[in-house]
Each structure stands twice: as C-alpha cells, then as structure tokens.
Design goal:
Blueprint: H1 4-16, E1 24-27, E2 36-44, E3 47-54, H2 69-80, E4 87-89, E5 93-96, H3 97-100, E6 106-112, E7 118-127, H4 136-140, E8 150-153, H5 161-165, E9 183-187, E10 190-200, E11 203-211
Antiparallel strand pairs: 1-6, 2-3, 2-4, 2-5, 3-7, 6-7, 8-9, 9-10, 10-11
Length: 218
C-alpha cells in the first residue's frame, strides 16, 4: 500500500506533466519496465528517488521539443518535490527503467488518460518518511489543486461476450449487490470507503458512511 508521500508525489507529477489531456495516477499492478527512464534524487527529510518514463515524449506540449528529455522533465520534478518540503534536487539522468521500477521499497504508479491508456509511469522510493509523517496534512495543501478520480460503484457483474453483444435498451442486468447495500467509494481505483447514494439538488450524490482503515495510504 502506498504512503502519503508516494501518492502525493505521483499526483503532483500527474498534475504538472505538459500533456494536452489530464492523466490520473493509479497504483500499478505491473511494476516491471523496459527501456529508459529519467530519474532524480531529492535530498531532504524525507528524501526520495523518483523515476519517470514517458510512453511517447512527442505528446509533451512544453514547447521544448529540441531540449533533452531530462531538461524537459526537470520542472515537473521540481514542482512535485515541493510536497516533501525543503531540500535539494539533483539533475535528471537516464537510467535503466527495469532497475529503477523494481528496486526495494519502490512504489510504481501508472499515469492513465481518460481512455485508460498509460501515458507515463512513475516510480517513487521514499527515504526517511518517518521523519515527517506528521507534516502530511500541511504539505497536502501544496497539491490541493491536483484532481484525482473519485468513483462510486453500486455493483458489478460478469457476463459472457455473447450476452454483452445482445444488450439492448430495456434489458435489466443483475449486479452482485442487494438493493439498499452501501456503495463502494474508490479513489484512483482503490477502495477507500462505503456510502449511501442520495439525491441532492436534483443530482445523485454519495453520503459517506465509512472510511476504511488505512485509506490515508491510498
């Protein structure tokens, strides 16, 4: 499970990458990687080692296509490490992604677009996170404007392809949840709590009933 610092860094990077479309950080289920990534080291309390791999650098819209990828990504890293407080940031370097993304203590995030495609991947290893655990809420304000996807799920089902192909208006599909059961609240795909679906000012809304233990580390 990711810590506050790892999630905050991934969210800050997602919010600053100069794509023409938004990307959302999601904990990766496949930490493996091939090719190269750009990595930096942040020296502070806590410190961090961050590696970023862009699926298609041509998608970066920063007006600096002639510059090296290390230089183009440095402002992104600078903005991201602000969540860690005071410290110094190294210059970016090209590294073997397979090593950077599989190191001990490393958390890997996929940065996905609205269609679910992975536009970039980031690997974060926090050093000495215990030194400033209590500072999390204050530092959260530095990325308060970064948007994350919150989804309310009332149920799921599995269907054979043949049944999916026969779906039509008016068809009723049974879900795996009884009527009146609480809905799941998911942040970036991870379950963080349960709630009740209500109507507020004519729109559907969710009344939070429970936040799961450990949700702070989502």
């Amino acid at each position: 499970m990711s810590t506050f610092h790892e999630t905050a860094l991934a969210a800050a990077i997602a919010g600053r990458l100069p794509f023409a479309y938004p990307v959302v950080p999601t904990p990766s289920t496949d930490p493996g990687a091939v090719g190269e990534a750009v990595a930096v080291t942040f020296t502070g309390a806590p410190g961090a080692r961050i590696a970023l791999q862009i699926a298609d650098p041509a998608q970066l819209e920063d007006g600096s296509a002639a510059a090296t990828l290390e230089d183009r990504l440095h402002p992104v890293f600078e903005a991201a490490v602000a969540v860690l407080g005071a410290g110094s940031l190294s210059e970016g370097e090209r590294v073997d992604a397979a090593v950077a993304f599989t190191g001990a203590g490393t958390q890997v995030f996929d940065l996905v677009d609205a269609g679910g495609a992975v536009a970039a991947r980031v690997a974060v290893r926090i050093d000495g996170a215990h030194a400033s655990a209590s500072a999390g809420p204050q530092r959260l304000s530095r990325i308060a404007g970064v948007e994350m996807e919150l989804v309310v799920e009332i149920g799921r089902t599995r269907m054979p392809v043949r049944d999916v192909l026969t779906l039509e208006p008016g068809r009723v599909v049974d879900l795996d949840r009884a009527a009146g059961s609480p809905a799941d609240i998911r942040l970036n795909g991870r379950l963080i709590g349960h709630g009740t679906v209500v109507v507020a000012d004519g729109d559907f809304a969710i009344r939070v009933e429970r936040i799961l233990d450990g949700a702070e580390g989502v």
